[in-house]
Design the sequence.
């Protein structure tokens, strides 16, 4: 009886080790999703790019009308037609690209570059089409060789406001007695 149990236990261990460490594991990475180092780096890079695109899309395109459709990112080269400040609409930038005139939603880029009618401008962004209008939501703007990433302009303002709030606080005068 003792010999049978020893043989049976040895057989179970042998068969188990064949399945655990044997030739069936040679293609395990392919079958079970295990990746090589280069595949893992490529996947990480793609995930990082997707996250960056999602963050940009969240910041720049979160207030679009319900019926709006977005084009793919395009390059628009033209001239500035009008730069103005409207109380209801805020900063207004109109550019002429070929025969078409577009409004540009570019955030507070006027803080980073000076804008004048007649200047040439290059915009990388998306064309938004609604039932009533077409306009460009800018991601990057190049004026006179200076490139401004619209997504970076807004955090600068937030950092400046936070610094102002910190400097306006009353100084620490020590414990009150």
Sequence:
């Amino acid at each position: 009886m003792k010999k049978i149990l020893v043989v049976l236990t040895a057989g179970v261990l042998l068969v188990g080790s064949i399945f655990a460490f044997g030739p069936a594991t040679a293609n395990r990475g392919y079958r079970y999703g295990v990746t090589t180092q280069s595949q893992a780096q490529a996947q990480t890079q793609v995930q990082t790019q997707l996250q960056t695109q999602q963050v940009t899309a969240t910041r720049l395109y979160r207030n679009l009308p319900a019926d709006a459709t977005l084009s793919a990112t395009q390059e628009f080269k033209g001239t500035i037609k009008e730069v103005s400040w409207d109380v209801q609409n805020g900063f207004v930038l109109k550019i002429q690209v070929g025969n078409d005139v577009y409004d540009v939603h570019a955030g507070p880029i006027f803080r980073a570059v000076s804008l004048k009618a007649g200047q040439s401008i290059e915009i990388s962004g998306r064309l938004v089409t609604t039932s009533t209008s077409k306009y460009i939501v800018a991601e990057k703007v190049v004026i006179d060789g200076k490139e401004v990433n619209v997504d970076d302009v807004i955090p600068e303002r937030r950092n400046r406001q936070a610094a102002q709030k910190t400097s306006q606080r009353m100084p620490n005068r020590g414990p009150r007695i």
Q: What stands out?
A: The CA atoms of residues 27 and 33 lie 10 Å apart. The radius of gyration is 30 Å. The chain is about 40% helix and 30% strand. The chain has a mean pLDDT of 75.
